[in-house]
Amino acid sequence: MAANNVHSTPIQPKYVLRNPLVVGENTKSIQLIRIKDNESFLGLPIPDKKVSSDKNPEWKISLASAFLPTAGVPLSRILNHPNIVGLVDIIHTDSLAGSTKRAGIIANIAVYEDMNQGSLDLLLPNPEDYPKFTDVAAWRALATPNPNRFSLPESLCWHVLSNINKALLWLHTGVKQTDTKDDWQKHDDDWQPILIRDVSPKQIWFKRTGGGATYGQCKLGGFGKAVVTGFPGGNMAKSEKKEGLSWFFQPPDQLAGTETWGSASEIWALGATVFTMMTGIPPPQQFEYQWAMSRMSDKPYTSGLKNLVAGMLKTRSSERPTTAQLVGRIEQGWEEWRATDDAIGYVDWKDRSRGREVNLKGEVEEKPRLGWGIIEAGGI
Fold first, then answer.
1. If pLDDT is split at 50, 70 and 90, which confidence band does 131 have?
2. In 3-state terms, the chain is what percent helix, strand and coil (to 5)?
3. Where do the Protein kinase domain residues begin and end (predicted)?
4. In Å, what is the CA distance from 242 to each residue of 195, 231, 337?
């Protein structure tokens, strides 16, 4: 009798919903409060299904299922990157004794750092307002040249492109780009590539800006459907595409079912995300490639940015650049943009680390820093 009472005792939660009234069963993310200190966090429900196939059970596995219920250490080590939303905790209530019926949507959940500035999709047009894929006439109207179309600043486009490519470089290759230009760090030779399978605006997160920088930290999240492939260059099988992913961020070869899901697919998805930032619409795949790409010319973006994004959106996956190839191209294009009038007043974390701030005239000027140069020679 006593044993039955133990197993029926409700489990005391570590986290509670910030606002239970706005949470639905199919929500993409959940705002949480940690009970012990009232700190805010972001929660993502953990899927139950494994991704591995019957033919290749060891080839690929669900990232969450592979590590649960003891995922805290190894998973957090894998996701330890400045451009990936940090894993704080994993709640796997189903594996515990006791009553879990009150746990609800937070019964099995991954807890991440709170990205308090929200996700990129909040800055973009609502995708529910787009026409159906088959409504060619409506899409032709949206894809017609329009100098007044929606667009986000080029500075933000570079910010997202640079930071999320660094995250993908880490996931695909185990290589971490450091703060020093052209400096790379390899995690280990046995790194098994990770495919997140959802590079889209709703999975790109920001933190509030600080220290005079124009934008806060930009990080990639949404690892509920990620998979670990068994070898470098590993791909997803055609039948194992990301369920529920809209066509907006699926490359043409995926829509046609002619190629597997791999790292080149995620390059295309990142390119499609930046294209949407530049045009207000996802790449209109219903039309000829060059004509669709010309929509990026409706606004005065630099040729460096337009050419980069167009390359990432190539129809053939073999023609798209890799994350490693993109690093240098992004750095060069970004530096060329920084030399334009559009960049006046822009400050990023590199500028802050070099002691630069924006003055009242909107000009970037040097500020004294603690350390080198503060005390003149002979002043001691």
1. very high
2. 35, 15, 50
3. 1-338
4. 10, 20, 35
If one counts every other C-beta atom within 10 angstroms of the C-beta of residue 353, the result is 11
Q: Which of 337, 285, 349, 328 is nearest to 306 (CA)?
A: 337
CA distances from residue 367 to 212, 238, 354 in whole angstroms, order as listed: 12, 54, 8
| Whether 194 contacts 172, CB under 8 Å | yes
Contact present, 278 and 257 (Cβ < 8 Å): no
The CA distance from 257 to 263, in Å, is: 16
The pLDDT assigned to 373 comes to 33
User: In angstroms, what is the C-alpha Rg of the chain?
Assistant: 23
d(CA 153, CA 218): 15
320: pLDDT strictly greater than 70: yes
b/e map of 181-218 (b: 16 or more CB within 10 Å)? eeeeeeeeeebbbbbbbbbbbbbbbbbeeeeebbbbbb
Considering the four listed CATH numbers 2.102.10.10, 2.60.40.1120, 1.10.510.10, 1.10.10.10, the one that applies to the domain covering 115-353 is 1.10.510.10
b/e sequence 129-161, b meaning 16+ C-beta within 10 Å: ebeeeeeeeebeebbeeeeebbbbbbbbbbbbb
What's the rounded Cα separation, in Å, for the pair 93 and 273?
35
CA distances from 116 to 106, 162, 208, 217, 360 (A): 20, 20, 6, 10, 27
Pairing relationship of beta strands 40-45 and 108-113 according to DSSP bridges: antiparallel
Q: Is 372 helix (H, G, I), strand (E, B) or coil?
A: coil
Residue that wins the pLDDT comparison between 66 and 83: 83
**Residue showing tokens 């460096």:** 304
Looking at residue 337, its amino acid is W
306 DSSP β-pair partners: none
Upper half-sphere CA count for residue 76 (Cβ side, 13 Å): 13
For residue 59, what pLDDT band results from cuts at 50, 70 and 90? very low
Interhelix angle 154-173/323-338, rounded to 10 degrees, is 160
